User: Fold this.
Amino acid sequence: MKKVLSLVLAFMLCLSVTAAFAESAAPVKVGVLVPVMTHGWVSGITYQAEAYAKQLTAEGKIEYRLTTSSNAEEMTAQIDEAIQWGAQVLVIAPQWTGMEIPVQNAIDQGKVVVAFDMDIDAEGILKVTGDNESMGVAGAKFIVDKVGPTATVVALPVPTSGSVSELRMAGFNKTIAEIAPELHVIEYATKFTREDGLKDFADILAANPQIDAVYSLDDETSIGVLQAIADAGRTDIKAITGGGGCQEYFQLIAENKDIAVSSSLYSPLMIRDCFDVALAKLAGEEVQAVTVIPSQIVDASNVEDYLDPSNTIY
Assistant:
């Protein structure tokens, strides 16, 4: 009888171990929530997120659902839908504020949530980001180097982008206060699109007869700004910054001889790290609450290293 009981117990243990292994080996359900493609960099985020999700799916590591949204309300609904689907992980890339409550609710339900490129005030959230503040520091140094410490500079913050704009402007303003306190800075709110860069900077040019440089936070915005400068026939502007990693903007860096053009590399490729961080956390590994990926200045001296004719997305 004891032998029979031992065999039964051994069989049950085997089944238990097999079931546990099957459970651990099952693909992780990942909800990927990204914004609609409002401009190239966001398109790059969606492209890179889906490309990596497909790769991880092919490797049998995850099963995913990707949704796009145009505001916090839409993304909130999509978070609820992802949880109902059974998502264990949420990779989110909001481009606006107002995500604190739905994200906290997801974390409280035991979901691993990794935000890309935006601060969200939720306890237990993980974040992957580039170094936004250092982009502002680099932009300030680039401009002062090109036009001097007493020039007139137009800065183009994007308040609707939340912490992204705040950090880039903080790095810029802090550095200017240290190295060029007499610099005259004019701030004009815009958006991360070339259309807004063109429209808004046309107004700025009309209102300001002398501008020495432009502190733009984004490559797409800068493309619009450069078009506005060309349309107006202005020759006073001698430097402009950007941020992102746009191939079209890189071409302008290479081609422009009259204006010193630069960009702080802030690649959409970084969203791939969100998946890696989430899977590591889910596996019980120790991960940092914030993973910061260093930026790199791209200008005429090194732009050839970053030109990629095969990249037609961003």
User: Anything to note?
Assistant: The longest strand covers residues 28-35. The chain has two domains: 24-130+268-294, 132-265+300-305. The CA atoms of residues 247 and 310 lie 10 Å apart.
